[in-house]
Amino acid sequence: MKTVVEASIGDLEKIVQIDSEVIGNTSRRNYIERSIESGKCIVAKPNDEIVGFLIYDINFFECTFISLIIVSPSSRRKGYASLLMDYLVRSSPTTKVFSSTNRSNFKMQRVFEINGFIQSGLVENLDEGDPEIIYFKSKSSG
């Protein structure tokens, strides 16, 4: 059974391992640890094994912002990103949920679209030549 739960500090090593599989290093370890400690990290767990995680905050104009969503490469295309996003939108402490991805990241753009997020803006100059697309979804459209 696929479940989503708030991450605990005991999940840190597995989450960092998944993140490292994707980005090739453990540079976000402290960020992930702080997110877990502040209750802003959720994990997808089929059969008690973590396969993905989502980190959010509420510092984006006092709205929920998904800052990181990672699914283990071996567990992709099985609905875990959608499961995490749906859970967060339904349980969001704010009525508006935002996130972003680079214009070059077509796979993530498709994930947002499949999950009912709409484009809400564009931010230039974060990554040279690769603008960031801002996405939005209202909790009520959930």
UniProtKB/TrEMBL annotation:
Protein's name in the database: N-acetyltransferase domain-containing protein
Pfam families: Acetyltransf_1
Signal peptide positions (record): none
UniProt cross-references to PROSITE patterns, sorted A to Z: GNAT
Organism of provenance: Pontibacillus salipaludis
Gene3D superfamilies with a match to the protein in the record: 3.40.630.30
Domain N-acetyltransferase: residue ranges: 2-140
